[in-house]
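Encode chain A's predicted structure.
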Amino acid sequence: MKYEVVDTQIDAQISPIGRMEVLSRAEAAQLSSHDQRGLHEIFRNCALAVLNCGNGIDDAKELLERYSSFEIDIIQRSRGIKLDIRGAPASAFVDGTMIRGIQEHLFTVLRDVVYGSTEIDVGSSEAITDAVFHILRNAGIVKPTLQPNTVVCWGGHSISREEYDYTKLVGYQLGLRGLDICTGCGPGAMKGPMKGATISHAKQRITNARYLGFTEPGIIAAESPNPIVNELVILPDVEKRLEAFVRAGHGFIVFPGGVGTAEEILYVLGILLHPDNADLPFPLVFTGPRSAGEYFRQIDTFIAQTLGPEAQRRYRIIVDDPVEVARAMQTGIAEVRAYRKDKQDAYYFNWLLRVEHEFQRPFRPTHANMRKLSLHKNQPSHLLAANLRRAFSGVVAGNVKADGIREIEKHGSFEIQGDPEILQPMDALLASFVAQGRMKLPGKVYNPCYRIVAETV
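Encoded structure for chain A:
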């Protein structure tokens, strides 16, 4: 690998690490052509996000503007490809050599962008689930010989030091019990459990531990993958990313976070509220340090006021007790294994889980789409959860996603309309996130990208 430092940026040529060593001529042309329906742009932006690991930028638009001269191209050779990188963040290199984990992630980007551009069939709900399975299988995530042991950890990328340290303690206890970690792959609550588990996995002499990271092009710049992740997957959109979590995971932990974490909670509760999933074991724990008790009280109150007690029965809240969290996961995963064995369902992919099209259909957060959301109680609770999830997804986009930020700059704040009995709890929850500094990185003033407009009778 040869390199050249330009101020705080580096030019380099990178050889493959991983499975993506060769490309067809058509694939190379797609990735190299700046006119090929945005495929090169997706590849470039995801690659920049991977290289930006550790720089603390959680605004996709800001990242793209700061490294506007960044470029990446394919060099085709008879014995394989190389990546020609110009203007990369210097933090991705140590003494001119790219950090190995980041180098692996760079070729993961290449693999998933190429595969996602050619292999996705979304004609039906079943086809979307198949597509998620095919993407995970292509990435090597599907391993039929492994017993259930994957714990999905959700939570904010911008959390306090106390909350971050707590995620490490929980990860440590999970690792002691031989459990693997799957997160959204970014910093904060996505990195902490992995960091804690690396220590306990080492103590238990577990050398094949898995640190899975699932992301998507719209959020990857705001949540750059941390190098602990040793199996990274880039799904085409947030909906397929969320389905990948619930299909591949065996137990689920939610740490403190902001709007994105609330979106994840609403997604999983909406699925679990479907009558077909009523008896399906799905261990779900909300946890944080003692100081996060009020945060989870607010989340619990919001769920009670909008989705009702049935939704509350699908999770446990455990405050300031990493050992109990890990034991709850171990017990819950044992129930998952027994259930799937009895039902002859796969350990590696939750085929029996019913995920309706409302949870799979990509939602584009425009002003018109945000205004049209059905936010009222005159509908099944799982469909209300789906619409609430879309509303929170729109706020995430307006906060940190490049397209959403541009939409806000062009047309002003999103308007969220609906019944007062839904919007008042939502407004209170969002206001608490702002007051607690959970919307943006510390030190930045938050300007709301949304406006709550309660409908009058």
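Residues 133 and 354 are 14 Å apart (CA to CA).
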